[in-house]
């Protein structure tokens, strides 16, 4: 390496070290943020749970234009207070009962803070074994709540929609449904099934698949299993391919719970993948008085649950579970990953991402 190159590296090192904040400066920054946090908690019950009032949000944010010089932390916090906290929903508010997700758990926020600082990457075991084991422990805990036996697998996601997308891809590859079959593949839902099912099918290129809205039982808004059976029989007679059955454990509209056990019987009879959307109601399985509503969930093929709903954790926390973990592995594995050439292959020559 010649002197010019060394000089260039020294300069780049000096520039990079500008990102290293000294301990005293870190303390000042965290003290400033904590002051705002304490003020937020102290005044939380005094503000409305929802408000359409407040200063013009777009104007404030535009005035805080990004620049090479950056902004003081006080100015950033002031902008957030004026543009974000004074209008819209307040999920941490004690009077907030409208939209399903909630939040405001301080220990969970600290967990987000510490993991962001340490910034461990949990996508590959060799890069962060402890973090991957921690994720797997959490996945197994939820799987045990649902009733899945050993052999399950799962993934922490940003929420129900991303988890549903992974589940749909796993179902497609496991059935298997090929592109030439898409126009004959049938998905069974109800009128109140969450739209993440339709979105996931579209992303997977299965927009042309057939969706059947099965009638519901009166005011209960739960799937009528007898009508489901009749529809599947008719579809098979017509040469179609019953592919996916979606049940809900707590719909976002009414909180209704489909008869998952009866639906599991139908799914088994016709070899249909049973997916359960428990994003809203999944963690109510912890309530002994209503555990009976979850009967049969352990027989589903896949399920999504959102901790940022039933457990009040920060937004961006979801869980996908697949009863047969091998199917999830096969649908989300690569046989050649150039950037991981130094890692050991498993017995199948596969790297799992």
What does this structure look like?
With 353 residues, this protein is of the alpha/beta class. 41% of the residues lie in helices and 12% in strands. The protein has twelve helices and eleven strands. The chain has helices at residues 3-16, 23-43, 57-63, 73-85, 106-118, 129-146, 160-174, 196-203, 225-237, 260-270, 307-310, 325-331, and strands spanning 50-51, 88-89, 153-157, 185-189, 210-213, 241-248, 273-277, 302-305, 318-322, 333-334, 351-352. Strands 3-9-8-7-6-4-5 form a seven-stranded mixed beta sheet, sandwiched between helices. The chain has a two-stranded antiparallel ribbon with strand order 1-2. Helix 8 (196-203) links the parallel strand 4 (185-189) and strand 5 (210-213). Helix 7 (160-174) crosses helix 8 and helix 9 (225-237) runs parallel beside helix 10. The longest helix is centred in the N-terminal third of the chain and has 21 residues, at 23-43. The radius of gyration is 25 Å and the shape is globular. The model is unreliable at 347-353 (pLDDT under 50).
């Amino acid at each position: 390496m010649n002197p010019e190159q060394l000089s260039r590296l020294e300069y780049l090192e000096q520039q990079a070290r500008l990102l290293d904040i000294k301990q005293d400066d870190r303390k000042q920054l965290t003290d400033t943020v904590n002051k705002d946090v304490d003020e937020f908690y102290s005044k939380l019950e005094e503000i409305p749970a929802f408000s359409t009032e407040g200063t013009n949000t777009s104007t404030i944010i535009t005035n805080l234009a990004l620049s090479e010089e950056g902004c003081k932390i006080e100015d950033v916090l002031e902008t957030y207070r004026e543009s974000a906290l004074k209008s819209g929903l307040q999920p941490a508010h004690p009077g907030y009962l409208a939209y399903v997700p909630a939040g405001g758990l301080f220990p969970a926020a600290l967990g987000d803070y510490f993991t962001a600082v340490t910034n461990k990457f949990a996508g590959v075991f060799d890069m962060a074994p402890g973090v991957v084991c921690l994720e797997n422990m959490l996945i197994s805990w939820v799987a045990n709540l649902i009733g899945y036996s050993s052999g399950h697998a799962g993934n922490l996601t940003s929420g129900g929609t991303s988890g549903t997308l992974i589940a749909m891809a796993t179902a497609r590859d496991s059935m298997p449904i090929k592109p030439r079959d898409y126009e004959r593949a049938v998905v069974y839902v109800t009128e109140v099934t969450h739209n993440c099912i339709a979105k996931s099918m579209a992303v997977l290129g299965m927009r042309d698949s057939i969706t059947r809205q099965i009638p519901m039982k009166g005011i209960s808004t739960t799937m009528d299993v007898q009508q489901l059976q009749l529809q599947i029989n008719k579809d098979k007679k017509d040469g179609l391919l019953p592919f996916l059955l979606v049940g809900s454990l707590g719909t976002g509209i009414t909180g209704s719970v489909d008869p998952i056990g009866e639906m599991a019987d139908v799914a088994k009879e016709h070899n249909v993948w049973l997916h359960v959307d428990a994003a809203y109601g999944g963690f109510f399985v912890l309530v002994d008085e209503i555990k009976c509503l979850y009967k049969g969930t352990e027989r589903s093929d896949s399920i999504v649950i959102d901790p940022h709903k039933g457990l009040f954790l920060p937004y961006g926390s979801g869980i996908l579970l697949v009863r047969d973990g091998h199917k999830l592995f096969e649908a989300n594995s690569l046989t050649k990953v150039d950037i991981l050439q130094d890692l050991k292959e498993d017995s199948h020559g596969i790297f799992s991402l």
